[in-house]
Amino acid sequence: MSSYVGRLAPSPTGALHLGNVRTFAVAWLRARACGGKVILRMEDLDHPRDKPGAAAQALDDMRWLGFDWDEEYVQSERRPFYRATLARLPAYPCICSRRDVESAQSAPHAGEQLFYPGTCRDRFANWDEAASACAPRTPCWRFRVSPGTVIRFTDVFAGLVKQDVSASLGDFPLARDRDGAGYTLAATADDLAMGVTEVVRGDDLLPATPPQILIARALGRDPPAFCHIPLVVGPDGRRLAKRHGDTRIESFRAAGVAPEAIIGWIAATCGWIDKSRPISLAGLISRFSLETIPHAAIVWRGSFT
User: Fold this and answer.
1) What pLDDT score does 105 carry?
2) Domain extents for the chain?
3) What is the per-residue pLDDT across 152-172, written as a single tens digit (0 to 9) for each?
4) Class of the CATH domain delimited by 5-77+230-299
5) Overall CATH class of domain 88-183
6) Which of 27, 127, 255, 271 falls between 20 and 30 A from 293, CA-CA?
7) pLDDT in tens, 262-281
């Protein structure tokens, strides 16, 4: 086994769908083609949106499709680790709502990213004081970004990325949780602790990468490499949703679709086979290549043929 360590990180906020699986297939094949290890990490910290039974269903669907993994973790079981990690970061509690942050912006910012000017810096002595000031809402932890902080990195798939974090984001949120158990902090800390060497994920998460690199460096570590691939979208160009029909893996299973048909469609969209035809996930290891994957989003048109 090589030193390559990849990971699959499903979330139980909804059912596993075709878009998730295409990204997971690239991540899994990348690791197996490198002779490396695959970690499965259930990212179940978004409790208000977690769906009962979704985690177990996702794992069952993944095994049905041919995925396997060498280690398995559940983020909700790792809260003490996140608490200890938070204590090592330049973080402070913030009570500003999204509306507060939007109204404080002096200029519009691209996408969904909001610039935060540091309103709550040095405002509260601790989390309890902040929580009391904004009850019944919950504060969030923010990462204190130094002026002039610019992140540059070369994404394995997307190429050169540069962001002036201090000017575009400011003090970005880490987690809306007392222990720091939120996506931005937890995903970064776990990747470092689990020895992940490369993160393969959808390009919708590319904007999350500069903050995660900053967190890794604040912890005295080099971040893993990153590889962001395009998403599967509907004919309207928007990411898959109910309006595009039922793309849940459990629904395809119930309809009698074979796992090889789903994997074959994914293989064709990635350029590993000439057209969509049944093939197993393991059967793609020798065919895997990042170079053949299109740089444009893949459109789902409602059929595997």
Assistant:
1) 61
2) 5-77+230-299, 88-183
3) 999 999 999 999 999 999 999
4) alpha beta
5) alpha beta
6) 255
7) 999 999 999 999 999 999 99
